[in-house]
Amino acid sequence: MSNSRKRHEALLYHAKPKPGKIAVVPTKKYATQHDLALAYSPGVAEPCLEIAKDKNNIYKYTSKGNLVAVISNGTAVLGLGDIGPEASKPVMEGKGLLFKIFADIDVFDIEVDATDVDKFIETVKAIAPTFGGINLEDIKAPEAFEIETRLKEELDIPVMHDDQHGTAIISAAALKNAIEITGKDITKLKIIVNGAGAAAISCTRLYLELGAVRENIIMCDSKGVIRKDRDNLTSQKAEFATHQDVNTLEEAMQNADVFIGLSTGNIVSPEMLLSMGKNPIVFAMANPVPEIEYDLAIATRDDIIMATGRSDHPNQVNNVLGFPFIFRGALDVRATKINEEMKLAAVHALADLAKKSVPEQVNIVYDEVSLNFGKEYIIPKPFDPRLIYEIPPAIAKAAMDSGVALEPISDWDAYREELMERSGSGSKEIRQIHNRAKRNKKRIVFAEADHLDVLKAAQRIQEEKLGLPILLGRKEVILELKEEIGFTADVPIFDPKTDEESERRDRFGVAYWESRQRKGRTLTEAKKLMRERNYFAAMMVNVGEADALITGYSRPYPTVIRPILESIQKDNGISKVAACNLMLTKQGPMFLADTTINLNPTAKDLVKISQMTSNLVKMFGMKPNVAMLSFSNFGSTKNESSQKIREAVSYIHRNFPNAVVDGEIQADFALNPEMLAKEFPFSKLNGKKVNVLIFPNLESANITYKLLKEMQGAESIGPVILGLSKAVHIVQLGASVDEMVNMAALACVDAQQREKK
Ligand SMILES: NC(=O)C1=CN([C@@H]2O[C@H](COP(=O)(O)OP(=O)(O)OC[C@H]3O[C@@H](n4cnc5c(N)ncnc54)[C@H](OP(=O)(O)O)[C@@H]3O)[C@@H](O)[C@H]2O)C=CC1
Ligand SMILES: CC(=O)C(=O)O
Ligand SMILES: [Mg+2]
What positions does the domain Malic enzyme NAD-binding occupy (predicted)? Predict the structure, then answer.
């Protein structure tokens, strides 16, 4: 896109449909006169009086505890310089947006017309009671240092100048990983820091804490190298003044290992890069234009590890990765400060996260096949959903250990759960299944592990400790893909077609034949069948060499279900299997059956389907409330289809009077409690929230679940096969990595349940 197009697009984005990027949203009901009497006078006086009695009550009755001020005077806006408070507002609104979307923190952006240090400090102190924390932003050095130091001393809420410490934390994490990749020794690194402002000074101080050596660092400002013999140095610049006899950035960069740019755009040339040592680490972090453009740097040297502050290239080293999560952790324990211990905890947590395998949704957002720790991925991406539950706990814990937390956390699992809830990362039901899977890890065979996405799912199962994957498929392909995605764990691999597995094929073949010999299979045929992955995998589960099986990714459902039904026995008392989809709808979880197996179930089948689905609901820790759906309500239309549902319901009512099952009923009545109560007060579903929908036939169930998926964007787990004697599950053709991970976690819980029986 041309520069003028980009400019136009950016201006339009900010102007339309409403000017700006954030707004205030009420969090309480306000529809009635009664609501307003609580929200405002007279009701509002009660919390006022409580807070007047004890100021701490402000955290109980107002939004203070989750409200951060993003405050600037506009003197160092990005790398645009001193453009004034009004012109800084888009950046501050932008920070507000990022705080909200990444960490669910509310922000008031405040642009202060005060360049005088005392006046600025007075202003911030005067408004501080409103906020749970203060994020200072884009205030130039050296004033930024005094402002932050004094506000930290004088206020009892966390104050952080983001350009200093946010940047320091992120760049230190990236530097730590870049050093690891190049195998360099931090104590020997020759580091050039260009810029000696708020960001550069604080970053360099943190690198010293990580082990960098002051004598090996040369810092430059707009006048060149900061030498000991220069006059009028600020105390911060004097901290990094060098004895070395160098004057210009160009001279300083010769044989350097690391370049840190926190200055201004386009001031490093390809020649300067070429003069650096082997495997140079270059962080050109000036915004929006880096000290040297990413593409130019990469084209100049192929041994470089290159990062910028921008989102449009690999390795975005930008404080966006820090401030939302740092404040989240600090607010959640009511930390009075953000101290060195908390900063270092953030550095290590971020650096470590980059080494773990990346969730598929991150690959998708960034249009990558597979992001792996390495030269082009030294630091997590801002859209990584794990940041919200990995970084704040590290900060909160460090705050507690260093004695600055007024409200310590004791239940860390509950805290992680709360963080996930805040970010809307996955649904509660899925998290519950994951947590239960972790408690007793089961061996899960992935029958198509020679497919990239299946292998990625297995990798996540391994790394997130959800289960113990067993990989099935062409061994050489699996090994190659494993290497490609950085799946280093040593997990069992089986290739059913190879000689290596002939003993297993024979054994499985005999076991299979014993159950099929009266159904037309010969022993020779049976043994031959075991070369096929789904028979082999199913038999692994049957003979107890695995606890669960996931398959179906690469072949159409009917071709997968057949070997499964031939190999795996049905549960006691079950003559037909069925399938259920759990849809995570905006109204809550909803179980739909039979979505994929029985074309036109009989009344007897419907009874079984309802019972098997109810058992699945219980596995999720919920109580089933079952609506048997139709186009008719309680006998309003007499025809074959509604009649069979009536029969099924009456059977259930006679034999299982405590089951909450009713119908036949139309979908809108089933899902609308008021309508149901008004028209059919006699129904067993009256006063209940329906969470199971049993359909009269496969067509209606299948169409509904696909509509929900496409039109409501409802996440789905399933189809889950009901009625087999083993934890065997078939995913949809081409299922996503997330879908397979969820299904594998479910299979694991399924296997745990069967063990208990
Ligand atoms: N990627 C990220 O996350 C972040 C990036 N930044 C970027 O860092 C830069 C500095 O920000 P900040 O520290 O807040 O601002 P400051 O105003 O505090 O500091 C700017 C510094 O840059 C120096 N500088 C300006 N021009 C040159 C030059 N040609 N050569 C060498 N040094 C120069 C100034 O020198 P002097 O002291 O002589 O005036 C000053 O030391 C900005 O571009 C900003 O966008 C900042 C924070 C986060
Ligand atoms: C990213 C940032 O805070 C800056 O460039 O100032
Ligand atoms: Mg900034």
Answer: 164-400
d(C-alpha 146, C-alpha 149), whole Å: 5
Whether the pLDDT of residue 425 is over 60: the answer is no
ipTM of the modeled complex: 0.99
pTM of the model: 0.78
**Is 424 a residue whose pLDDT tops 80?**
no
Between CA 399 and CA 329 the distance in angstroms is: 8
Cβ atoms of 624 and 722 closer than 8 Å: no
Distance CA 742, CA 738 (A): 6
Q: Where are the beta strands (DSSP E) in 351-455?
A: 443-446
- pLDDT given at position 627: 98
Strand (E) or helix (H) holding 595: none
Mean pLDDT of 360-367: 77
- CB-CB neighbours of 18 under 10 Å: 8
Ligand 3 ion: nearby residues, β-carbon < 5 Å: 138, 163
Q: Active site residue: 29, 55, 64, 95, which one?
A: 95
Cα separations in angstroms, 487 against 114, 352, 595: 54, 16, 34
Question: 135 in ligand 2 pocket by Cβ < 6 Å?
Answer: no
pLDDT band, very low/low/confident/very high, at 520 (cuts 50, 70, 90): confident
The tally of CA atoms less than 13 A away on the side-chain side of residue 220 is 25
Annotation: binding site: 77-84, 137-138, 163, 287
In tens, the pLDDT along 52-62 reads: 999 999 999 99
What's the mean pLDDT in 173-177? Answer: 98
* pLDDT for 370 beyond 90: no
Give me the percent of the chain exceeding a pLDDT of 90.
84
Do the Cβ atoms of 457 and 472 come closer than 8 Å? no
| Ligand 1 pocket, residue 74 CB under 6 Å | no
How far apart CA 349 and CA 344 sit, in angstroms, is 9
Q: Is 442 a catalytic residue?
A: no
DSSP 707-744: HHHHHH--EEEEEEEESBSSEEEEPPTT--HHHHHHHH
Ligand 2 proximity of 309 Cβ (cutoff 6 Å): yes
Q: Which domains does the chain have, with CATH numbers?
A: 20-161 (3.40.50.10380), 162-315 (3.40.50.720), 322-420 (no CATH), 438-567 (3.40.50.10950), 578-723 (3.40.50.10750)
Atom 5 in ligand 2: residue holding the nearest Cα = 78
Average pLDDT of the residues in 683-692: 95
Beta-carbon count within 10 A of 167 CB: 26
Give the annotated binding-site residues for a divalent metal cation.
137-138, 163, 287
Average pLDDT for the chain: 94
